[in-house]
Amino acid sequence: MNIITPTADGSNTLYNETIGEHYHSKHGALQESKHVFIDAGLKFASVDQSEISILEVGFGTGLNFILSFEYCEANKINLNYTSIEAFPLTSEVIEQTAYSAYVSETIWGDFITNYPNALTAPQKLTSLCTLEIPHTTLAEYKTDQKFDIIYYDAFSVQHQPEMWSDEIIAHACSFLKPGGIFVTYAITGKLKRAVKANGFTIEKLPGAPGKREMLRAVKGM
């Protein structure tokens, strides 16, 4: 069961009783998403770009997506967004997060209307945005597509250690284009070594509130 829980910045998150962890930082769900995935990921990777492809590991509540969607619409960037989710939430639960307050009414409406169908096939939300949410695990996910960015937003290593193994990190990294960006809220010595072993240059960045550092890595050309 998932329980709506307020975070320190006033935005809500969900507490997953099965996993034993919140979907976002208790120090601020909205702040974390913007800091880690939008500012350090999307804005960094999309400079002078008219098109961007994102692979997200862990769609969850859709917060990273709607913020990315709004940014790309505002900046006239074509967004191809694929997000792997083994345990998709219902539309009703997502609406209970009240994330509609953080994007335009149009962006939210396009998202929530198309969300159920995006779980089974790619959906064209606007002329600039396509959303697909494969209902599968990262380990089982396969595609010939290569992406510009990976948002690695799995639950923490304490609660989902299998999502942070060397093998699964290598599998995720294989979906990036040369020069592609791997970005995540976490940073450990083991994670840095795993990403570096796949030909990436590592950057340690200031973390979102509640975390000292985060990881961004650039795949070699």
Write a structural description:
The chain is built from six helices and eleven strands. The protein is an alpha/beta fold. Helix 1 (29-45) packs across helix 2 and helix 5 crosses helix 6 (189-196). The longest helix has 17 residues, at 29-45. The protein is globular, with a radius of gyration of 16 Å.
Features:
6 helices, alpha/beta, 8-stranded mixed β-sheet, single chain, 221 residues, 3-stranded antiparallel β-sheet
Fold blueprint:
Blueprint: E1 2-6, E2 12-16, E3 21-22, H1 29-45, E4 51-57, H2 63-74, E5 78-84, H3 91-96, H4 105-118, E6 123-124, E7 129-132, E8 147-152, H5 166-173, E9 176-184, H6 189-196, E10 200-206, E11 213-219
Parallel strand pairs: 4-5, 4-8, 5-7, 8-9
Antiparallel strand pairs: 1-2, 2-3, 6-7, 9-11, 10-11
Helix pairs in contact: 1-2, 5-6
